[in-house]
Amino acid sequence: MTRSAQEVNFDGLVGPTHNYAGLSLGNLASQRHRYSVSNPRAAALEGLAKMKLMMDLGLRQGVLPPQDRPDLRLLRRVGFEGADDQVLQQAQRDAPQLLAACYSASSMWAANAATVSPSADCRDGRVHFTPANLLSQLHRSIEPETTALVLRRIFADPACFAHHDPLPCAAHLRDEGAANHTRLAPRHDQPGVELFVYGVDALDASRPQPRRYPARQSLQASQAIARLHGLDPRYTCFVQQSPQAIDAGVFHNDVASVGHLDVFFYHTEAFVDAPAVIEHLRRAYESCAGSPLTTIPVEPRELSLDEAVESYVFNSQLVRLPDGTLAMICPEECRQHPKVQALLERLTTGGSIGVLRYVNLRQSMRNGGGPACLRLRVALTDQELQRVHPDVMLTPTLYDELVRWVERHYRSELAPNDLADPKLIQESRAALDELTRILQLGSIYPFQMA
Ligand code: SUG
Q1: Nearest ligand 1 atom, CA 179
Q2: What is the pLDDT of residues 410-421, one digit of tens each?
Q3: Among 36, 342, 367, 399, which is most buried by a count of CB atoms within 10 Å?
């Protein structure tokens, strides 16, 4: 099948300091695995295996480099002084959570890197990118600067790509990127509906709010992005995530719904007034696309929100294979879950899903990151795809090279105490320096620019 546009998944490559520090309040897996020993090598290889699966299914797949960690600039900005190893030792003694924050490999979850609108939706006919400010969590708030630089480097041609700065760092404008954004369209090169899901309206305290856990996305941030991208207000929907869902561990909406082209798979307790949300979405979609939206609702009696969070079934990737079949890429954890198995059986025998594949992402999952968290979707026309930095596009050769690179540089065990080991800084920098050569990205890290 010839395609004039396609969705390309850009996955965050897991960095060499992947660890479990329990940094994300409201992310139940992150809390549960706090201080366990991680395996950065396995984490990176699992992520690469998922990318390879996508490539083997006939889909284009891109790679986003990890960020430079530890980010010692963070520790210096909060008052730790001296040489690198002194800064690390003092932070370990006085503020181990800050030390963990500056070591987090969280940029692997590329769904939080940015919000991306395809050219067909944007007034100026370019693909628009807004890196997320990620200010709700300290360890993630240090990502936007490098993310912005990397995206500008990969999508460099101003005739095709428009880059905005991350939104100003104020709680009013807290933004977590594509994890709370879904685009629905009949084709990737036709206008679609952009659905923005927010956790809080920062200007209206009378609206329902979560009680236990933070709402990470504000309505005002989503509105700002829609304005910046020049989206058509008729086809832009802002809907509120249910506070109960946030309190049940749905810290990003992509833990309770996923959409792809004309299909929207969602838990009926994901939104405030879900029936009205779906009706609104259907109408917007029909008037934009001229054809109906296919919705796949899941009621709590079939799967509770808690079970959705446990299994991460809504964090599966929905992709259309080159022959048009809809495929679902699920976390391995779904295989062990009888109720999820029954749900998936219903979807496959009913014909909604043509192909079902499971991926083992255990290392990332233990920090609350499933298949869809690891990828940033960028719908591109053939012409736009030609303008993407070619060396980040996965090929069998690049895959082999990246596997060898991981095996050369990554540790297979990282315990909380290892974060004060100054050798880890050198190891990590050596790995990243080499990676920028493999991906031909030039200097992107602060240590390369010093
Ligand atoms: O922001 N976990 C990430 C998981 C992000 C998942 N992304 C999407 N749902 N799209 C987060 O909570 C845990 C880090 C730690 O605890 O060490 C963490 O940051």
Answers
A1: 10
A2: 999 999 999 989
A3: 367
Two tokens at 375?
Answer: 């990828």
Mean pLDDT of the chain: 97
The pair of structure tokens assigned to 340 is 């999820």
Which entry of 46, 143, 176, 194 is annotated as an active-site residue? 176
Q: How far is CA 290 from the centre of its chain?
A: 30
What mean pLDDT comes out for the span 275-299? 98
DSSP-assigned letter for residue 80: -
The finding on whether 50 has its CB within 6 A of some atom of ligand 1 is no
b/e map 412-434, b = 16+ CB within 10 Å: eebebebbbbeebbebbbebbee
Structure-token match 């079939």, residue found: 302
What is the rounded end-to-end Cα distance, in angstroms, of the chain? 48
Ligand 1 site-directed mutation target among 251, 361, 418, most atoms within 8 Å of CB: 251
Which residues have a Cβ under 8 Å from the Cβ of 99 and sit 6 or more positions away? 70, 75, 88, 91, 92, 419, 420
Identify whether 252 is a catalytic site residue: yes
Give the helix, strand, coil percentages of the chain, each rounded to 5: 45, 20, 35
* Among 11, 39, 373, residue to substitute to test ligand 1 (most atoms within 8 Å of Cβ): 373
33 catalytically annotated: no
Region of 79 please: left (phi>0), alpha (psi -120 to 50) or beta.
Answer: left
Q: Which of 23, 255, 365 to mutate to test the pocket of ligand 1 (most atoms within 8 A of CB)?
A: 23
288 is catalytic: no
Instruction: Answer whether 369 contacts ligand 1 (Cβ < 6 A).
Output: yes
Helices marked H in 255-409: 274-289, 305-311, 338-349, 362-365, 382-386, 396-409
Q: How far is residue 424's CA from residue 178's CA, in Å, rounded to a whole number?
A: 31
What local confidence, expressed as pLDDT, does residue 1 receive? 46
Say how many Å lie between the CA of residue 379 and the centre of ligand 1: 24
pTM of the model: 0.98
32-48: per-residue pLDDT in tens? 999 999 999 999 999 99
Q: Residue 143: which of 163, 124, 166 has the closest Cα?
A: 166
Atom of ligand 1 at shortest distance to CA of 137? 1
Condensed to tens digits (0 to 9), the pLDDT of residues 180-189 reads 999 999 999 9
